[in-house]
User: What shape does this take?
Amino acid sequence: MRLDESFPVSLQKQQALRDRITRLGINLSLVEESFTRGGGKGGQKINKTSSLVMLRYAPLDIVVKCQRERQRSLNRFLALRELVDQIEMKVSPATSERLADQGRVKRQKDRRRRRSGD
Assistant: This one.
């Protein structure tokens, strides 16, 4: 996979993703990328285009699929961002923003459960 393509997102988001990739030391040549037809709602558009992006990072055995948007290039960016999140959660859990968010939500739910008396 290469990052030289311009994604349909802001330059700040692209640069932030590139910075995370270099900080974590992810080798993008090890990321296998494939495109398939998606499923679900969407009718003819979904049935005719291969907009589902599947990324596989073999060293950690992580597979990410993304079909959130209609544009393949945007799905590529979203899938890559999700892949970087998954890698960060495995490699560097202390710096993972996603794990911190999950912990914060868990603490809020525990607090609410204690207050309600369940």
Summary: The CA atoms of residues 22 and 28 lie 10 Å apart.
